């Protein structure tokens, strides 16, 4: 083995040296659940008051909770749920909280099967032979529902079912799951079920049947965004545990808070900024996190989120974006929808995909604007009517790289340089 590849080469020694920045970086991640949630006491108290009847073996009201990403919805509900289970255990009653992420578990079958799996404790069945395991596929949905009811009745308690990102479930699978869950109590004699739906999208209710909406939204809570001062308090709380003393310049937390407050008061964004700032400083071998590290972290987050956004775009959106990139590379810093449509119609025959209407292309342009990939504005051209102008606010080299690496071979076969030359 050569010296360069030897396991004793000390490749990681400098990273395993005494920490200069972090004491416990895990507390700066979204998954960490603090014992105290700053600036969410009113919402926590309200959730607790709604769920309190479960401690008397009564059915709590169903709840719909709204708020933008990073406003503490899930953390608050989990906090109340943990407290509820602890009080229930002390009182000798059965009250369980089941949490499902509907972005992952997004069909009626999987939701019902997962609830059945999670409600069962180790002491509910003296022998595992008495417990029926629901496979994740293969049964008729009616059979899964019937087995879920049997298991609820066997355990005999109050069950709080949290459907996080409930809008994803409804948009993909309709409202049949909610219809069944909000009516399950009529089929139960020994157990009670309450639903808590959490969503970032207030508009998802338009997808619900009025009867489902009436049953589900017995109580509604809205979590407001955090302001910069509140975000400061949250970061101070985490920093006291996560960073070594004096590792942060005094301007770092206020700057992270101010930047995140501009992003709709997102606590997750604030935590990411603070953590990544510390990681960048640590990699540099610095002993203190400075404002410059925060600025670098902001640029990194924006680039990373933009790349991920572009990678997950549908094919037609990528083709429309490709047309814009061609115009930009041809020297047009501002372009109009008509030019994009013209290029789109020239290259789609080469790609063997459906040709979209002008209206649909305009919709895709609006979606790209909403995602922050491009910027647009409506311009009034007098008797020629109004048109939409658009441009890139960020460096397009990374966008071009992602488009070309993510697309199949069809776009790569187009002579982009020839098209750019023709457009100049």
UniProtKB/TrEMBL annotation:
Involved in regulation of DNA replication. It comes from the Archaea. One of its GO terms (biological process) is DNA replication. Gene3D superfamilies: 1.10.8.60, P-loop containing nucleotide triphosphate hydrolases, Winged helix-like DNA-binding domain superfamily/Winged helix DNA-binding domain. HAMAP family: ORC1_type_DNA_replic_protein (MF_01407). Belongs to the CDC6/cdc18 family. Residues 59-227 form the AAA+ ATPase domain. Residues 321-403 form the Cdc6 C-terminal domain. This is ORC1-type DNA replication protein. SMART domains: AAA, Cdc6_C. InterPro entries: AAA+_ATPase (IPR003593), AAA_16 (IPR041664), Cdc6_C (IPR015163), Cdc6_lid (IPR055237), ORC1/CDC6 (IPR050311), Orc1/Cdc6_arc (IPR014277), P-loop_NTPase (IPR027417), WH-like_DNA-bd_sf (IPR036388). Keywords: ATP-binding, Cell cycle, Cell division, DNA replication, Nucleotide-binding. SUPFAM superfamilies: P-loop containing nucleoside triphosphate hydrolases, Winged helix' DNA-binding domain. It comes from Methanospirillum lacunae. ATP binds at residues 71-75, 226, 238. The keyword Cell wall biogenesis/degradation does not apply. Transmembrane segments: none annotated. GO terms for molecular function: ATP binding.
């Amino acid at each position: 083995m050569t010296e360069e590849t030897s396991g004793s080469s000390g490749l990681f020694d400098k990273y395993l040296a005494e920490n200069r920045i972090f004491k416990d970086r895990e507390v700066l991640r979204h998954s960490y659940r603090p014992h105290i949630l700053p600036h969410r006491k009113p919402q926590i108290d309200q959730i607790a008051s709604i769920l309190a009847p479960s401690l008397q073996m009564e059915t709590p009201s169903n709840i719909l909770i709204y708020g933008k990403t990073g406003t503490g919805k899930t953390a608050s509900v989990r906090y109340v749920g943990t407290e509820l289970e602890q009080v229930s255990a002390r009182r000798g009653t059965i009250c369980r909280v089941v949490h499902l992420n509907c972005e992952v578990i997004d069909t009626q079958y999987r939701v019902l099967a997962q609830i059945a799996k999670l409600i069962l404790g180790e002491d509910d069945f003296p022998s595992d032979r008495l417990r029926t395991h629901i496979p994740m596929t293969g049964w008729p949905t009616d059979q899964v529902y019937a087995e879920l009811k049997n298991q609820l009745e066997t355990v005999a308690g109050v069950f709080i079912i949290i459907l996080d990102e409930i809008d994803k479930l409804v948009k993909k699978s309709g409202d049949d799951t909610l219809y069944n869950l909000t009516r399950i109590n009529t089929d139960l004699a020994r157990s009670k079920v309450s639903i808590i739906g959490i969503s970032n999208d207030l508009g998802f209710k338009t997808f619900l049947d009025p009867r489902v909406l009436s049953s589900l939204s017995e109580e509604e809570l809205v979590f407001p965004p955090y302001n910069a001062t509140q975000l400061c308090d949250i970061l101070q709380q985490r920093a006291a545990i996560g960073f070594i003393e004096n590792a942060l310049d005094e301007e770092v937390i206020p700057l992270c808070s101010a930047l995140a407050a501009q992003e709709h008061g997102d606590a997750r964004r604030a935590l990411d900024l603070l953590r990544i700032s510390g990681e960048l400083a640590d990699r540099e071998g610095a002993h203190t996190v400075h404002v410059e590290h925060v600025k670098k972290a902001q640029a990194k987050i924006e680039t990373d989120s933009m790349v991920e956004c572009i990678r997950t775009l549908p094919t037609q959106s990528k083709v429309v974006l490709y047309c814009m990139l061609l115009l930009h590379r041809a020297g047009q810093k501002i372009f109009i929808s008509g030019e994009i449509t013209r290029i789109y119609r020239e290259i789609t025959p080469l790609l063997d995909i459906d040709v979209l209407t002008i209206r649909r292309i305009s919709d895709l342009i609006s979606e790209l604007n909403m995602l922050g990939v491009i910027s647009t504005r409506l311009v009034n051209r007098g008797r020629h009517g109004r048109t939409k102008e658009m441009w890139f606010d960020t460096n397009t080299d990374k966008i071009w790289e992602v488009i070309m690496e993510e697309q199949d071979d069809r776009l790569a076969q187009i002579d982009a340089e020839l098209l750019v030359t023709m457009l100049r």
